[in-house]
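Hi all, long-time lurker, first post. I run a small reading group and we've been trying to get comfortable going from sequence to structure in the token notation. Rather than ask abstract questions, I figured I'd post a concrete chain and ask someone more experienced to write out its structure so we can walk through it together at our next meeting. Sequence below, copied exactly:
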Amino acid sequence: MAKITLDNLAHSYLPNPKSDDDYALKELNHDWVDGEAYALLGSSGCGKSTLLNIISGLLHPSQGRILFNDRDVTNEPTTQRNIAQVFQFPVVYDTMTVRDNLAFPLRNRGADPQYIQDRVQQIAAMIGMEATLNKKARGLTADAKQKISLGRGMVREDVNALLFDEPLTVIDPHMKWELRTQLKSLHHEFGHTMIYVTHDQTEALTFADKVVVMYDGRVVQMGTPQELFETPQHTFVGYFIGSPGMNVLNASVTGDTAVIAGQEIKLGKGYGTPSGKVEIGVRPEFTQLTAGDTGLPVTIKRVEDVGRHKIVRVDLNGTEVNVIAGEGDTISPDMNRIIFDPVGINIYCDSWRVPPQGDVT
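-- Answer (accepted) --
Happy to help. Here is the structure in token form:
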């Protein structure tokens, strides 16, 4: 297990990068705690796999250092870093049995035969492949082969880190849930440092102790699922986390008052007079549809019943706003206003969160 330090780390695929736009991975300075489970979350092309490949040694960074337990491993090959990596698509030895595939990393390091037998049996039970241990991998389905890849990545207990690059892409939905649960259980049992790359927020939020949200080559926030939901530090985090994501509306803000579409709303806290591109962010869970004269005027466009609750799509001066209503709530045509719970309001300037200056008395 290892603490992983990213020191002034950046990477460009161009030979002579001249500006920030030339970097696929912009400058990072982070310490990732020994023994924690992290998820790298973001849309395609945001730099997740680039960062993972630098940590594993498959890619050498354009600048900066990568340290394991304060030891500089920047120039060390993958074989010297003592990590296990599982890729998006299955990598297995087709001519070997499932048992031999799982045992290979241990045999390669000269482990005791009895330990190998016991450990392989344990991992096979974890990935649900006890009945196929003696079958050749060649005839198995893609999701079964990926389970072998996962198992082979997890079979060693002495690794510095376990790295997963979207490993559940080819796994069926029910098995995805089971394997995520098993990975989490493995982490609690053995305390490996785990880094899990995904664009799926459900995978990230259910797997990780800390979620590292990336956007345009940057880490825009690292925090617990609760922190990402309640206080997104960047509008992308608010948009990307949640289903549907945070409502983001253009506004002007002075003190404890915001003006949106010509209407004033109270914020409950003071924010000074932020300048630049000012926006208000409110999650649909903190947005309420009502009738009367109080709130922002809207028009209901459609109602989507998703079982546990309703998602009401409304139009606010040409901008779509999402409202979460209870499963048993009645949505009537005269509901023409929305109000925001001040507890759920965040203010943003040039996409970054503005901290409140204090409660308004």
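A couple of things your group might point at:
The radius of gyration is 24 Å.
The longest helix spans residues 173-190.
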